[in-house]
Structure formats: structure tokens, C-alpha cells
Design brief:
- The strands form two sheets. Strands 4, 5, 6, 7, 8, 9, 10, 11, 12, 13 and 14 form an eleven-stranded mixed beta sheet that branches.
- A hairpin with a 2-residue loop joins strand 9 (184-196) and strand 10.
- The protein has helices spanning 18-25, 31-39, 80-89, 118-121, 153-164, 243-250, 302-311, 325-328, and strands at residues 5-8, 44-45, 61-64, 90-93, 97-102, 134-135, 144-150, 169-177, 184-196, 199-205, 213-225, 229-236, 279-287, 293-297.
- It is α+β, with helices and mostly antiparallel strands.
- It is globular.
């Protein structure tokens, strides 16, 4: 199109991120280009400046600058190798959602220097109407495990609301350095983003600090390997960026393999440990649109299995459904 457009957010798009909205309506506008348009103030919502992560509300008006005609975009070709890759990750699916076991190291969304990511691969699993499945929540690149993707816009709206209302129960497994003291409890603090040479990271700040948001997690020590390592079960109450990683570092027991928040100097790893962040979204419980409850668990990734074996942890002995850190706390 060659002129500015103004489009109204529909009811089924309530709560959708702005970048997801653009991916639906203007798939030819890549993430990097959208970021540039936003920085230049060419994309606005109700005449106000926004970010790619801005959540939309029904009735808001989005300003779209001149972009290529969507009708001129060729349909995406299905890559059968990527189809097989995604199908191997499916833990559960119905008419509304997929639940994938996201691999360690696979980014959920694109960004600077990231060309292969789950969001981009999803075009290979279109629904019956030819629509690309939509992300409902996110995991860090190096966090593995349960990830929900909606097959339709209506499902995306429902499950987006489920996650925002904290109706979904998320249980994570982690291996940390040291033994948490006390063995179980709640971590509650305020976090804020801070720019570093390695990019943005979250830091613990005082209440009232500009940009500060409250964060809360429950944790429980499931097993230990001497005083040097612990297998910890975690339940985030809030959903802040890098929350569990920051919380465990704040407790003095950072997660093994964390390149940003591991803060123990002169630390020596044990023989046989796998390489990478040892944080896994093990179990997910959430209400489905039909009123039933979904309860699904993801097997550990290879690098964590290596570490479990090296440290003598038995994942089969302590099933994910037998430990709820909130109840333990």
C-alpha cells in the first residue's frame, strides 16, 4: 500500500502484542523493520508512541505507515524438514493449541542476529484456514520445556488471558550451585531492567525505583549432591524477564550454566556436567476452553540429563506432579 492506514483493534485481538498484530496483518514487515518504524514514530497506537511488546486493547487505533501491499506477498512455502522438527517437539495438541517441548538453545522469537526461531518456524504448521499459529507466552532461548502455541486467534486470546491472570501453573526444574537456605520458601523482590555491554539484564532494586516491578517465586529443594549442588523445583507467581534466574542468584544459589547471572567467583564445576543453562519448564497445568484441565510434563533436555546422572539425581523418583513448591512453602 502507498498511503497511511488506520486500523482498529478487534475484540479477538484484545491483549495481543503489537509485533504479533503486525505479523498477522502485515507478514511482509519483518521484526527488524517494525522496530525501525516504531523508533521513528511511524507506528503509533491512539496517536501515542509504542514498543513492539505493547499490549493492545479492543477499539484502539493503530497507525500503519506505507508498507508493501500484503496481497503482493507470495505465500510462505512449507519446509517439510521444519515440519518434522516441530512435530517431534509436540507434547500435546488439540483444535486450539500445541504444547511444544522447546529445545535448549532455540530462540522463541527473532531479534538481532537471530534468524532461526520458533516463531518463524510456526508458518510450517498452518491451521485449516492457512493461519500461522501464535505464541501465547515465552521462554528464554536457553530455557527448555513446555511452551504453549495457539492455533487460532480465538485460542490465542483465551490462553493469553489465562497466562496474564496467572491461572496457569508453571513448574520448573533447575540445578543450582550450593544448597538453598532455607530449603524451601518464597523469593519476593522488585526487579528493573539495566543495560549492560552484554545487553539488557534484570537487577534487584528497591521498591519505588523507576521501572521497578514486583516479582515472586516459590522454590523447594528436591534433592542435593553434597553441599555443592541442588536440584530445585520452582514455581513463578509473576512472569518477569529472567525472573527465576535472578531469584536463584539473589538467594546465593545461581543456576548452573547461566551466562548472565551466575555470580560465584572461582567456581569449579563437577566432572560430567552438561553444558548450558540448567533450567527446564518441566510441567504446565492450565484450563482449556472446553472447561477441562490440561496437565502436561516435558522430559529433560540432554545436557540436564547428563548432569542428573553425574550428580546422582533420579528424575523418575521425584515426579513433577509429586512436588509443588507453593504447597511446600
Amino acid at each position: 500500500m502507498s498511503a497511511v492506514q488506520h486500523r482498529e483493534v478487534s475484540a479477538d485481538e484484545e491483549g495481543m502484542r503489537l509485533d504479533r498484530w503486525f505479523a498477522r496483518h502485515f507478514p511482509q514487515v519483518g521484526f527488524g523493520r517494525l522496530q525501525k518504524l516504531i523508533r521513528n514514530g511511524e507506528v503509533r497506537v491512539d496517536k501515542a508512541k509504542v514498543e513492539t511488546s505493547t499490549r493492545l486493547s479492543e477499539g484502539q487505533v493503530i497507525r500503519i505507515p506505507p508498507v508493501d501491499d500484503p496481497g503482493a506477498v507470495r505465500p510462505m512455502r512449507i519446509n517439510e524438514e521444519d515440519v518434522r522438527f516441530l512435530e517431534d517437539l509436540i507434547l500435546y495438541q488439540d483444535d486450539d493449541i500445541f504444547v511444544f517441548n522447546k529445545p535448549h538453545g532455540l530462540a522463541v522469537q527473532g531479534g538481532s542476529g537471530t534468524t532461526r526461531h520458533l516463531d518463524g518456524l510456526l508458518k510450517n504448521l498452518p491451521n485449516k484456514k492457512g493461519e500461522t499459529p501464535k505464541l501465547v507466552h515465552r521462554l528464554d532461548r536457553d530455557t527448555s520445556g513446555c511452551l504453549v502455541v495457539a492455533k487460532t486467534s480465538a485460542a490465542a486470546t483465551h490462553f493469553g488471558s489465562v497466562f496474564r491472570s496467572r491461572s496457569a501453573r508453571k513448574i520448573y526444574w533447575a540445578i543450582v550451585a550450593g544448597n538453598p537456605t532455607p530449603r524451601q520458601g518464597e523469593i519476593s523482590c522488585f526487579l528493573a531492567k539495566q543495560s549492560t555491554t552484554d545487553g539488557e539484564q534484570m537487577v534487584v532494586v528497591r521498591n519505588g525505583t523507576p521501572g521497578a516491578v514486583h516479582s515472586s517465586s516459590y522454590y523447594s529443594t528436591t534433592d542435593t549432591a553434597s553441599r555443592r549442588f541442588a536440584w530445585v523445583t520452582l514455581k513463578p507467581v509473576t512472569g518477569r524477564t529472567h525472573q527465576l534466574r535472578v531469584h536463584m542468584a539473589q538467594l546465593g544459589t545461581p543456576i548452573i550454566g547461566d551466562p548472565r547471572y551466575f555470580n560465584i567467583e572461582n567456581w569449579m564445576p563437577a566432572p560430567g556436567l552438561g553444558e548450558g543453562l540448567h533450567l527446564h519448564a518441566r510441567r504446565l497445568v492450565l484450563p482449556l476452553r472446553n472447561g477441562k484441565k490440561l496437565d502436561v510434563s516435558a522430559p529433560l533436555p540432554p545436557h540436564m540429563l547428563e548432569s542428573f546422572e553425574a550428580l546422582g539425581f533420579d528424575a523418575n523418583r521425584y515426579d513433577a506432579q509429586s512436588v509443588d513448591p507453593e504447597d511446600a512453602a
